[in-house]
Sequence to fold (308 residues):
Amino acid sequence: MSVDFVPTGAWEVQRHPQFIEETAYAVTDLADNNWSPIGIVTEIGMEVTIEEDVVRILGSRDIYNQIKLGIGYAFAVRYRPQGTKFMRYGTELPARTPAPDNTGVAPNGTNFVSLSILLSAYIDDTEKWRIYKGCKTGSVGVSISRDAGIEVEQNFIAKDITIWDVEPTWSANTYAGAVSGNPWTGTSMGPNPLTIAGTTVQCPEFNFNVDQGLGELKATGIESVFYLAPTNREITLDFMTWVKDNTRLTQTKNHTALALTYLMNAGATATFAGVKYNSYTSGIEGGSADVLQEEIAASGKTLTIPVI
Fold:
């Protein structure tokens, strides 16, 4: 018995995942595209969900019919960042201006606009393209540690995800270049990256998450989402540090509003305002050789990250 196809896998990806802003919602521009790299992408997926109307009738124990009502598309991108451009579509407040720009000259850069995300891979020994259309960030999580470096997981809802297909017919199209250079690490930002109320705090681990409260508009007569709109932004964070004094515990008990910054890399400072701790954990275990640590969870009012 002969094998009737050539298997594929992550090693067969040719065009690394890259993105443009859409000038019209869920429409991938075919002219004048200048695709931007996401970062060093380690994972991209897709989830297709069918909404059904399951009909049962009198006189039958089994289902009479299953009627398709709608289809939903969701996916996540996991990557090691080399800049903040893609991340900001999940962290920043949506802004109506400037207008979406698929050329990349003056992009909007916020979740107000939708994205097309593209990649290509060899499928059964032929290069095929897949495009995620009408994408907006639902949430983005950034994990930073001394050992594992900096990793971002960005979750999306999309209007459509195409099948593996032939390359679109572009005009004046420029793909992003091949992946190169180092990702940000847990030491590349330099010493003292975390400051709280103007004071340096040493930490082995820092994480934050931004949820854009993405609302799905579903109109009658349309199977997929009609439009995606960010609503209320929610900012949460947590970090670990070593027990030095009573500062963190006192700030938790007093529910003190704090200004907090974390330098992810040169020029990429995440600036949080109105941070209040809502959980403090610290334990002492007999026989342990571990240095005493504090674990803090908090929520913030605002967050901004510059473009680099």
Notes: Residues 10-175+184-304 form one domain.
